[in-house]
Structure formats: structure tokens, C-alpha cells
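During the reporting period the student researcher (J.K.) took over the structure-prediction task from the postdoctoral fellow and processed the backlog of single-chain submissions. One of the processed entries is reproduced below for the supervisory committee.
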Amino acid sequence: MSTDTESLTSAPVPGQRERHILVLDLSKSMLAPLPDPTNPGQDQQKIEVARTAVYRILENAASSGAAFGLVTFTETPRVAVPLTEMRRDILPSVEGLISMLQPSGRSAIWDALALAADLLRSMNGGVRGTIVLVTDGWDNASTRFTVYHPEIPVPTPGPKLNLTEYLLPHNSELTLRVIGIGSGSERDKGVDSGRMGTFLAELERRSRDLALASSFSFQEVVTGSQLFSQMVHAFLDVGFEESRPFHELHPEELARHAASAARALKDPEQHATVGRLSGPRAQDLVISGAPVRPAASDAAPLEVDIVDTPGGTAPAYLRDRYGPLGVVIESFLAGEYDRAFDRLERARSILPPVTLLYWEARIQFAKGQIVEAARSLLRAWSAAEQLPSSDRPRIIRRLALLQARMQSDRETETLVRFMDETESRLGQGDPKVKERVLGLFERLMDLRSTYQLTRIEGTTSSPDGAVRHEEAVEQAFGALQDARLENTSGDPGVEGALDFIEICLAEMR
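J.K. obtained the following C-alpha cells:
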């Protein structure tokens, strides 16, 4: 066991990648059972549900090579898994460590969060990365840190360090997600949502004062299925495949993303969603950058956008931009899934079918209702097939992105995000360059079929398929060089897209 621990501690953590720390409550109250309405009589201990979710999170991390660490706490916090680039070869050792976690004692939540911040501290002193805290109570054992009430002056020197300042020094970029099990301030009854809200509000205030790009949120769960779902989705939502623009990625990161996308193209049996995709087309874009899309409904927009939550709160423009769908999205982003579903039902008669079914699936997925979400998404696919050809590719890609999330298909998700990002970047700029790059999209998607010929026919008994595929790849490389020559302005977005496509082409050989 000592050898395994040493290998974890010494594993390199790439500085450019997102880093994620799970802070898990191991106090004695985590031995209590959680009800699960989906499986009556099959209630599980909180720790068992959380442990199962950690296994799933580790699988996702190992698939993408993400940097992951685990801090646990009773009266004392400890680093159970050092911040490590997850790899398949070390996964059994890490899972072995997780299996031995046993709850006992009280809760030193604030000291544990400070320890997690230390793991994410960069060379300039800032805390950069994501922390997901899972707890069923309130701090009652921290010895070094505390959370001071904003209306009470902090004593100088205080008996304990101020956690808010420690988590958010200058140059920080922190995402903190709190998953609270249960509800109430009584012992073993759950997290005090009021006091947790005050803590997060104080973090928000400091983040604004220092102009930091940080985000904070709290989600209450009361059943085993909700706990599992929220833990897994907390890490999926931050995205192990980073959401930074491709042209801003380090070359090694870009290569990793492109190789991941190519795997989705090369193996349709494992990435069935890819078969439904088509790239953006030149005729769907005009020089001004506005896609030519006929309105699908006069009553409400045909909308399946992936909406972000800056600062952990819903954007102010939602109702104006999305009409009756805006109140649905507001509730969804606030984690009020039952209310979001109720508002969606009220708007059913005025929403386009694909919009209704997409958000129905998304809300169900967030609630952990996987079977229901899959059914709604299947119906959304059918509705999307009836759309005008100018609308269809964009909507199909949104549905594909949701399906990839539901299936934990990181390769397809990377491919779809790249396609969307490139289409957005091409909305403005040189029309000739746009035409070249969009043509490369079409070639890249067409290589799916010729690549499959090489796998079906083989290269020994019938080499024709392999020859045709290699010729198609070489023609695509020629078109790629033409596109680089056309990009005389040196647009970094275009260059990033071309670099991505070039790596995909090399992977498709």
C-alpha cells in the first residue's frame, strides 16, 4: 500500500488543466440511511451512496485524464487522495483507498475546505480550481478556521483564521459547489441552508470586491438518488474537458481534445450519437455572421441553448431573451427542478415540441430520473427531424451534447463543443476562410464512413477501402493547407480550429 500512495503523491499534475477537489464528510452522522423513493425498502447509508458516486467520478476523471483529489474530514481533515492526474493504471489503487473510508466523530468542515484550498493554491498565491463539498451537517470541530458573520467585526487577532479570506486571496478563480444532505440545523437532520447561504453570500461579496472570476452554489438533497446524481453532475458540469476556447489551449491540451474528438468519429459503435451529427454548412451563414434561420414559432423561440450561470446565479436577461421559457431556465439554474418542471408544463402549449422535450429531458436528468430523461430526449430527436434544414444541425448538436452528458461520453461531448465553438467563431470574418473551414468540417465528418470501410474490409483481403480512406485524408490535408493560406489575417480562432482539425485528421489515418 505504501508504494501505491507514493505513486499517487508523485504523479504530475499539469498546470494548464482544470483541477477538482471533492471534500467529503466522514462524520458519524454519515452512517445514517437515506430514503430512496425509487427503491422502497432499499435505503442506503449516506456514506455508501457517496462512495458509489466517487467511483463514478473517478471513472469519468480517468477517461479524460483529469486532475482529481479527495479531502475527507471528521474532527480532523486529511488528504485521502492527493491531487493527481487520474489514469487507468492507478484507478484500482485509488478505489481501494476509497473503499476503506469509514465515518466517525464530528465535523471540521472549515478546516477541510482550507486544506482543499491549499491543494489548489497556485504559485502566485491564488486558489484556482473547483471544490465540491458534500456534507450532512454543520461545522462543530474546526480548530484553525471559522466563518465570521458579515455583520460582526472580525477580532484582531482572531481566535481562528477567517476562512473566507483564506479561500479567496487575490488572483483566485474558485468554483465552490456545496451539496447539503438533509435540511435543518438540528443534529443529524442536515445542513442549515440559511447559514450556508450566508457563508456563500460572503464569498460572493469578497469575490466582487476583488473582481475575481469565481462561482458559488448550494444544492440540497434528501434522497439517495439525488445525492448520487448531484455529486456526479457537479463534476460533469464543471467539465473535465475544459470549456476554454480552443485557440487559448496549450498545444498539449489541444492535442488531447482533438484526439478525444477523433475517437468519437472513429468508433461509432461506442459513440452512437456521432452518427446523427452534421457539421455547420457555409450556406447557413451570411457575411454578417447571422445564421439564416426561419422562425419555428411566433409564440416562443426554438431554443435549446446551453445556458451558463455566471457567479452561480441566473443571468438577468433570461425572461427578456427566452420569453415563457425564461422562468423555466431561472428555476433550473437555481436547482429548483420541481418548480422548473411545473413551469415547463404551464408553457407546454406555446413552446415548440423540440424545445419542450429538450428541457423536459434536461430537468429530468438533473433530478436523477435517467430513464424518463432518455425517453424525453428520444422524442426530442424525433421532433428535431421535422425541423427546417437550416435549423436542424444546430439543434441536433444541442441534443447530441445532452445525450453525451447523459452517457458520460466525453469524446462526443468534446467533438460537439468544438463544432459549436467553430461555428460561432466563423460567424464573422473573411468569407473565403469561412468557406474553407466549413468545407473541412464536411470532409472530417465524411471520413467517418471511409474509416469504417478500413475496419470492415481490412487491409489484407480487400485493401480498396483503406486506399480510398487514405486518399480522402490526403485530400483533406490539402484543403487544410489551402485554408491556412487563406487566413492572411492570422485570426487565432481560425488557427485554433485548423490546428484542431489537423490533429483530428492525423488521428483518422
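The committee noted the following: The mean pLDDT is 75.
J.K. will present the remaining backlog at the next meeting.
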